[in-house]
Amino acid sequence: MKRAMLSLMIERRITLSDTPVAFKVARSRRRRTIGLKIAEDGLTVTLPAGLGLHHAERAVRDKQAWVLDRLEKMTARARPALQGVDGEEIGWLGAALPLRIVRHDRARTLIDRKPDRIEVRLDAGLEHTMAAGAVRRALHRWRKAEALALMAPKLAAYADALEVTRPKVLVREQRRRWGSCSEDGSIRMNARLIGFDEALIDYVCAHEACHLVVMDHSPRFYALLGSILPDHRERQRALKEAVAPGAAF
Questions:
Q1: Helix (H, G, I), strand (E, B) or coil at 238
Q2: CA 161 to CA 9: how far, in whole Å?
Q3: pTM score, two decimals?
Q4: Residue 7: its pLDDT value, please?
């Protein structure tokens, strides 16, 4: 989960068994082999530094059956995009909470998470299109704030257990990584994790905290992770298969 990209990703297209497939190509300083990953934003091929783009296409063709199967499953699991309207469902720690929009006489959009819903209080003077946009923007801000409030104490606790300095924690809305740890000891977490079960969030926090001690994914790293989270492999597998409930945003 550590950041190691050398350049912006390149968009490519290929045809597999009469099926057009778009994919992105990235490069990594630390990779020694070609990596393929399929997530909500599609297929990404990560090349070790120095390999030409034709190696990415060859890797996709070599893994054709796996690529088509995973893309089909990902499409079937695709969630509707957030519209910002009353009645939509928002993912929260593995549950889907309905969105309830309440009009009030203030310009500021406010969000209050109730046990059974997420309530958005919105300026009564906003017409439909502007109202939906205001709700979406408010939900993005709210999610990042909620994620930071939940994850920062977890990371601090894991750092304490590892007897290292507590990290500076930043929350971003990332497409490709659940978390990353920098050389300066700061950790970036993905706000989208807030939609998943808390046990999976704990896994990502523990994983990134261990990078404060060991920056790679060597046996030493996994031994350290196992010392603070014995079932980390099961949680990692669960996260790979999990789909957050509610609308995608």
A1: helix
A2: 37
A3: 0.73
A4: 52
